[in-house]
Amino acid sequence: MSKRELHFGLMFWAGGTHPSGWRYPSSHAGAAFDIEFLQRVTQLVEAAKFDFLFLGDRLASDPGLQTTNPSQMSRLEPFVSGASLASATSHIGIVVTANPTYYDPYNLARMFASLDHLSQGRASWNLVTGADAIAAGNFSREDHWDTEKRYDWADEFVTVVRGLWDSDANTPLNHKGRYFDVAGPLNIRRPPQGHPVILHAGTSDRSRELGARDADVIFAGQATIESAKAYYADVKSRAGKYGRTDADIAILPGLTPVVAETTAKAVEIYDHLNSFIALDPEGDGGEASRYGSLGRMGKRRNLTAVSTVIGVDIAGQDRDAPVDPVVLAEANEEGQRLFAHVTRLTRRDVRGARRLTYRDLIIGHISIGATVVGDPVEVADHIQLWFDERAADGFNIFPPYVPESVEAFTSLVVPELQRRGLYRTEYSGSTFRDHLGLAKPAPINSNASRN
Amino acid sequence: MARPLHLGFLYAPEAGHQTHDESFDPLNPLHLTALAQGLESGGFTFLLVDDSVGRTEPARSEAFTTASFLATRTRHIGLIAAANTSYVEPYNVTRLAASLDHVTHGRAGWLVSTGAVDPAGANYGQGAAAPEAHYGRADEILGIARRLWDSWEDDAFIRDKQSGVFVDGTRIHPIEHVGPAFSVKGPLNVARPPQGQVILAHRVVDKPSADFAGRHADVAILGAETAGSIVTLRDIVLGAARAARREQREVRLFAEIVPFVGREPGAGASKAPVANYVTGSPTEIVDQIEALANAVALDGVVLAPRVLRSGLDVFSREVVPELVRRQRLVAGTGAATLRERLGLSRPRNIFEQPARRPAA
């Protein structure tokens, strides 16, 4: 068996994954519709031998997202941007998010087969079933389906799509199932990868099962190494019942790196980014209307919300004042975790020379996913720890601001990981499956003469 | 002097190219690139990337991904991608077309086809439907698409780093469409296309398609064997345009032609009823194109050579220079968008309130 090796993807959000990343001085605020900019960023991570560029998607828009998630309000359709990025690159995998809940399997099978031909074996499907209830309103539906129905539909949908990829004039599909009735064959040759790489993300039991059965890459959102290890072990343990092994699935959690030559400089960048976040007045309520129905990450940004979490009433405090050590002493378990989280990121504490403020607690409370702030060695240590502890096979890198944070990661952290022998210095093949060490699958229902 | 003509190229599964050279594999991205770049350097105004959702031989890639791939490798040529309204969700196809317009910087079009001309119901769990049903659905989808393209006003983005205001929410509009087949709330999740509205093209071969083109198309491609039949189709298109309160000058008229230059193989092949065949020496072919253009008052011709790529190569090498010599080829320089190149104006946004526009 070949040596285990890190895998990296870049989560491309044009304005950065930080809610105020677009306000960072060097960021390109109009990046979402600037295809040449997308191409430059993709070429940047291809030069760093990343496995893939990840194009997310949402099937609705809402002006309320502008404070929580401006990069997700509006953007290029991912097949269109994916085909254009494939045209401007030669090795990197191109991940396109597509939601079977609102697609047709014949169309989607054609789109991915086309992208796989055009990219010469670099297409990938990020299979999501949709969490945004308002998307239903754009697709002639009254309601957003519940989890069970979305996954029942998705399970059959994937089976149809794989069957279409494997179909030809001699073996049309003739699928008749609970939801789909598709004659086939698909009107395009089998994709160069056989089946484009399938990604999936999710934490529900149905999602874990779908991932264990169908996903080549699982993109997980665990914020701590403990929860990530549990998730990793659980999903990999499910693979066996589908005739798959551990090595068939790469689990890549999200990771937001804030890296600079020195720790002090990295913390300065982190603070600078957070200084752009507009906080809320004290009090609660109004969250849904303020952040819009897509704004699931729109936690209330004030000390009222933090008080609820930590079990100590700090709502009346001056946000810029240092936190009284008594608050830490009286905080509940979740509060202790929040303080530790903030200290780990800011290197500030309730005692000592660098004192954390009440504002730091608000920022720590609203931050999502795993973030690491530090110099190249500290960030590489974090990555290596998660990798060695089998919390991750690599990471989907969330660049908080673009393109500078991408440049910082590729120029500072990647060489450090290469020095440690954890990360490739050259691509070993030209398809996305090659990067993942996955073989081209034989056609399902194959005749010996096919493929 | 007679006005110059536009040249379009139809890259279509069923309309031609049944025979293709060894040198052309439709699934080879380098061959596709060479085709598009050859057309661009030959002065063609647009490439129609047609498509079929049914069985095709030879197999080819889906039109929007193909057009987007080619966008990166070309600079001036219009890229008009096909999608069949009978088998798509309106929200999905609308954002594909809007996005293609962004990545081409305003060179995009949508070649609208329907299940009436490309039946593929068995791949979509659909039974057969009458042509009127397919066109009814197409009418509804285009109505939705036009409003969704306008759902973000041109100046909806503020992007002020100082204040942190990213958009002006009052310039982003739900469309609240409720119709016979679809209900679509909106807004779209894509900024307004650079052309305002993406160019719409339609192939006209009979009365339903001519009526549809008259109601919607910026580019109507008339497909018939004789000049007389082409005139008949043209008149239906223009009649339908008038009925829809459109100006005649808003519809650009093209005829589909199949060129056979000199002794090119296949010149003796039996004719298909969807295209006018022009044959002979380069001079004779240009004579025939000019005669057709004058008889029908065409804005241009769309080529569908029977053999890819050699038919195109011969045409570009021998016929295009003759068109240029006679000053009958539209010069491509200067126009930024396909809409401008075709001489069409950028539509006003239906949601824009004139009173709110800043004073000059």
List keywords for this structure.
heterodimer; A: 451 residues; alpha/beta; 15 helices; 12 strands; 10% strand; globular; B: 360 residues; two-stranded parallel ribbon; 9 helices
Layout of helices and strands, plus pairs?
The complex is a heterodimer of chains A (451) and B (360).
Chain A: E1 7-12, H1 35-47, E2 52-55, H2 78-87, E3 93-98, H3 105-118, E4 123-127, H4 147-166, E5 175-176, E6 181-182, E7 197-200, H5 205-214, E8 217-218, H6 225-239, E9 250-251, E10 254-259, H7 263-274, H8 287-291, H9 303-310, H10 325-330, H11 333-346, H12 358-366, E11 371-374, H13 376-388, E12 394-397, H14 404-419, H15 432-436
Parallel strand pairs in A: 1-2, 1-12, 2-3, 3-4, 4-7, 7-8, 8-9, 10-11, 10-12
Antiparallel strand pairs in A: 5-6
Helix pairs in contact in A: 2-3, 3-4, 4-5, 5-6, 9-12, 11-12, 13-14
Chain B: E1 6-11, E2 19-20, H1 29-41, E3 46-49, H2 63-71, E4 78-84, H3 90-103, E5 108-113, H4 131-149, E6 157-160, E7 165-167, E8 177-178, E9 183-184, E10 199-204, H5 207-216, E11 219-222, H6 227-243, E12 252-261, E13 276-280, H7 282-296, E14 300-303, E15 307-308, H8 310-325, H9 338-341
Parallel strand pairs in B: 1-3, 1-14, 2-15, 3-4, 4-5, 5-10, 10-11, 11-12, 12-13, 12-14
Antiparallel strand pairs in B: 6-7, 8-9
Helix pairs in contact in B: 2-3, 3-4, 4-5, 5-6, 7-8
Q: Would you summarize the structure shown here?
A:
Chain A is α/β, with parallel strands linked by helices. Chain A contains 15 helices and 12 strands. Chain A has helices at 35-47, 78-87, 105-118, 147-166, 205-214, 225-239, 263-274, 287-291, 303-310, 325-330, 333-346, 358-366, 376-388, 404-419, 432-436; strands at 7-12, 52-55, 93-98, 123-127, 175-176, 181-182, 197-200, 217-218, 250-251, 254-259, 371-374, 394-397.
Note down, in words, how this protein is organized:
The complex is a heterodimer of chains A (about 450) and B (about 350). Helix content of chain A is about 40%, strand content about 10%. In chain A, α5 (about 205-215) links the parallel β7 (about 195-200) and β8. Chain A has helices at about 35-45, 80-85, 105-120, 145-165, 205-215, 225-240, 265-275, 285-290, 305-310, 325-330, 335-345, 360-365, 375-390, 405-420, 430-435, and strands at about 5-10, 50-55, 95-100, 125, 175, 180, 195-200, 215-220, 250, 255-260, 370-375, 395. In chain A, α13 packs across α14 (about 405-420). With about 450 residues, chain A is of the alpha/beta class. In chain A, strands 9-8-7-4-3-2-1-12-10-11 form a 10-stranded parallel β-sheet, sandwiched between helices. Chain A is built from 15 helices and 12 strands. Chain B has about 350 residues and is of the alpha/beta class. Chain B contains 9 helices and 15 strands. Chain B has helices at about 30-40, 65-70, 90-105, 130-150, 205-215, 225-245, 280-295, 310-325, 340, and strands at about 5-10, 20, 45-50, 80-85, 110-115, 155-160, 165, 175-180, 185, 200-205, 220, 250-260, 275-280, 300-305, 305-310. In chain B, the strands form 4 sheets. In chain B, strands 1-3-4-5-10-11-12-14 form an 8-stranded parallel beta barrel, surrounded by 7 helices. A two-stranded parallel ribbon of chain B has the order 2-15. Chain B is globular and about 65 Å long. The interface between A and B is large, with 65 and 59 residues.
